[in-house]
């Protein structure tokens, strides 16, 4: 597939819904180099084509996420332990606004520093801030929540 500019990609994506099924099937074969799976709905086909076009033009998923998704496909379910976690280096400062108040945490080799105290984890700090149990990496934006 040819290299796209952002504007030509946007034009192609905008045009996808106007294509008839035979044109979409041809676009699928070009994008994926394979036949269209049987019984795929047109809305799903449009989403998959749009994703593939964007991934080819702008880059796809990180290899760690690809491995994670392949593991789900093989196992049939997701394991919490297999979820890729963003590693944060010691000395990194994390900022989070909660109810109009900014909170700053400094990552240490063996925990985190928040308001003059050392905590074992970001989750402890998130609980201190919110009063509820939270995933610290989720609260501080280091990972995305489940859909």
What does this structure look like?
This protein is α+β, with helices and mostly antiparallel strands. Among the domains are: 6-58; 93-139, no CATH class. Helices cover 44% and strands 14% of the residues. It has six helices and four strands. The protein has helices at residues 6-15, 21-32, 42-58, 63-75, 122-130, 136-139, and strands at residues 93-98, 101-108, 111-114, 117-119. The chain has a four-stranded antiparallel sheet, covered by helices on one side. A hairpin with a 2-residue loop joins β1 (93-98) and β2. α2 (21-32) packs parallel to α3 (42-58). The radius of gyration is 22 Å and the shape is elongated.
Report strand order across the widest sheet: 1-2-3-4
Helix content: 40-55%
Gyration radius over CA = 22 Å
Helices and strands: which structural class?
alpha+beta
Low confidence ranges: none
Tell how many strands the DSSP assignment holds: 4
What does the largest sheet look like?
Answer: 4 strands, antiparallel
Which key terms come to mind for this protein?
147 residues; alpha+beta; four-stranded antiparallel sheet; 4 strands; 44% helix; elongated
Write the layout of secondary structure elements.
Blueprint lengths: L5 H10 L5 H12 L9 H17 L4 H13 L17 E6 L2 E8 L2 E4 L2 E3 L2 H9 L5 H4 L8
Offer a quick outline of the entry:
The chain is of the alpha+beta class.
């Amino acid at each position: 597939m040819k290299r796209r500019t952002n504007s030509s990609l946007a034009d192609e994506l905008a045009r996808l819904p106007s294509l008839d099924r035979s044109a979409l099937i041809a676009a699928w074969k070009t994008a994926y180099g394979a036949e269209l799976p049987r019984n795929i709905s047109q809305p799903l086909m449009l989403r998959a084509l749009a994703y593939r076009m964007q991934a080819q033009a702008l880059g796809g998923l990180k290899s760690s996420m690809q491995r994670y998704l392949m593991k789900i496909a093989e196992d049939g379910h997701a394991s919490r332990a297999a979820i890729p976690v963003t590693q944060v280096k010691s000395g990194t400062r994390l900022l989070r606004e909660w109810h109009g108040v900014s909170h700053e945490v400094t990552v240490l080799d063996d925990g985190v520093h928040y308001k003059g105290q050392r905590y074992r984890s970001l989750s402890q700090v998130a609980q201190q801030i919110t009063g509820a149990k939270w995933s610290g990496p989720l609260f501080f934006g280091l990972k995305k929540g489940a859909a």
